[in-house]
Specification:
The protein has one domain: Mog1/PsbP, alpha/beta/alpha sandwich (Protein Transport Mog1p, Chain A), CATH 3.40.1000.10. The two termini are 33 Å apart. Helix content is 14%, strand content 47%. With 208 residues, the chain is mainly beta.
């Protein structure tokens, strides 16, 4: 059963660096991850985010957007979702399942595997233009870029990601992207911090 959520469990501050570690219990798996990058340097990180949490049976989602944005029109989203499966599976089917909707509604969809083992994968996704009948917030020609960290810990499948949304763009022209490369690189570093812990088993990305 899902246990109580604790957003920030520890914060260590040095002269040169601030590190925030978050934790959530996902169906008996302790998931440790970083924090939304825009919240790290905020005087009060909790006041810098607007959260949404939902759990229905074997599916869980926790989303954060900047405090001054709305969920119908967000530009940046930081999220953790999980599914409790009836058996363990390799990471590849979990990637395919999680990205299936994006592949279906995106014109010019691209993805790139940055890291992959049997239990973890790091994927950069580019959706230059959403087409068809998208959800609210995607009207008027929108595009999206995302960094996705997928982890499999026994029967619990985790999808941790950050996405940036803006006007439709040219995937070959970074000046048109909804996010710059520096922010993408920071997000990749944050995603690599993710760990899924169950008893003595730790699933993580290890060293880059």
């Amino acid at each position: 059963m899902f246990c109580a959520l604790v957003f920030i469990v520890s914060m260590t501050v040095s002269a040169d660096d601030k590190k925030i570690t978050s934790v959530v219990n996902l169906y008996g798996v302790t998931f440790q991850y970083g924090a939304p990058p825009w919240a790290v340097d905020a005087p009060n990180p909790l006041s810098a985010v607007k959260p949404y949490r939902n759990q229905q049976g074997n599916n869980f989602i926790l989303e954060f957007i900047p405090a001054d944005e709305e969920f119908d029109s967000w530009k940046t989203m930081f999220a953790v979702s999980a599914m409790r499966n009836n058996r363990t599976v390799p990471v590849d089917p979990w990637i395919d399942y999680s990205l299936a909707t994006l592949k279906r509604v995106c014109k010019g969809y691209r993805d790139k595997i940055l890291h992959r083992t049997d239990k973890v994968a790091l994927v950069q996704m580019s959706c230059p233009r959403v087409v068809g009948a998208p959800m609210k917030g995607y009207e008027g020609g929108m595009g999206e870029i995302g960094i996705f960290a997928f982890l499999v810990q026994d029967e619990v499948l985790i999808n941790h990601h950050i996405e940036w949304r803006g006007k439709a763009f040219d995937p070959d022209d970074k000046a048109t992207w909804p996010v710059d490369q520096d922010q993408i690189d920071i997000a990749i570093s944050i995603m690599r911090e993710a760990k899924a812990i169950k008893e003595d088993s730790v699933v993580s990305f290890g060293q880059p």
